[in-house]
Amino acid sequence: MAKLKVVSTRKLHPGMRIGQAVKDKAGRAMIESGAYLDDIQIEYLLSHGIGAISIREDNDPDEIEVSEEAERVIEKERKDDRLKVTLREDVKKRVGEGVQYLFHSTDSKGFVEATHNVSDELEKAILKNNAVALDISKLKVSDEYTFKHSVDVATMAMIIGKKYGLSSEEIHEIGIAGLLHDVGKSKIPLEVLNKPGKLTDEEFFLMKHHSLYGYNILTETGSFSKAILSGVLQHHEKMNGKGYPLAVTGDKIHKFARIIAVSDVFDALVTERPYKAAFPLRDAVEMIMSMTDDLDMASMKSFLASMILYPVDSFVKLSNGEYCKVVENNSEYLLRPKVVEVKTGKVYDLSNDLKCASLVIIG
């Protein structure tokens, strides 16, 4: 169990790690427990009059002394991360509420217009600074799983799609498909959808129909492209034909569905649910990398090349017990950045130096 200490909001700085979730008046987590603070989150805390929060001592940069020699090496070796997506808290809130409205209003006349409005806001926030990467530790929109999950999946799908080579129009459309990929769950009884234990065979059979329900909901509007419909219908298909609802294989699965599938699986792995604990980010990435029979390799590679797991300036612990600061990420090796040991200034290039082959980041 990590040790916690209360820190004045005015003394916070980027890189500190939240010990307990910060919630709004409605009880929604605006900053999740375990998240690493950035400037935008600190600004949010100050603007909302939050005087102090709990910080994890085991990952507090103030507790890790960096020697002068290490500082010199860090300054020499440090390279900024690629431009990253930054979603302001107010944007996250509006988009999350927008998706919630969509799931509750599938039969309304304004459903299609509302869908485009929500998608447009998310798209502008994601693409406004030509971002090409995403810090996956920051993908938290709300405590409500279905809506948070939908926004997270849409966000990842758009960034992955950009790396994949989708056109601007396709990136817009895959954003819509990502937001609505689980809209069919609005037709699943809540006692099944939110069941804390294992589903019965009958309940699982019903749950597996949500992608078909979503496809039918969107088809009936007559307002969504074939690509969007395919992304919603096929996002649980697997490359080996063991998915659902059609059990199709390979090229018969639309590229939107292949990209959304990677995003969907990853976000499900790292999100806590009543029936399972969340996997650590590193473990989830390794699980994605192992799913070569299920997931499309091109989509998987685009995912790995678009995500940042250990942002530059964050502190990590190596398997040799040494604490280091991240100074450079390699887009081809998500799990293996270049780091500098905080006492000696020794450089570990985990992705390019064969002498580091046995070293891994453990915390």
Q: Can you put this structure into words, describing what you see?
A:
The chain has 363 residues and is of the alpha+beta class. It has three domains: 4-63, Molybdopterin biosynthesis moea protein, domain 2 (Alpha-Beta Complex), CATH 3.90.105; 65-81 and 314-363, no CATH class; 89-308, Hypothetical protein af1432. Helix content is 42%, strand content 12%. The protein has 13 helices and ten strands. A four-stranded antiparallel β-sheet has the order 7-8-9-10, covered by helices on one side. A hairpin with a 2-residue loop joins β8 and β9. α3 (89-104) crosses α5 (145-164). The chain is globular, with a radius of gyration of 21 Å.
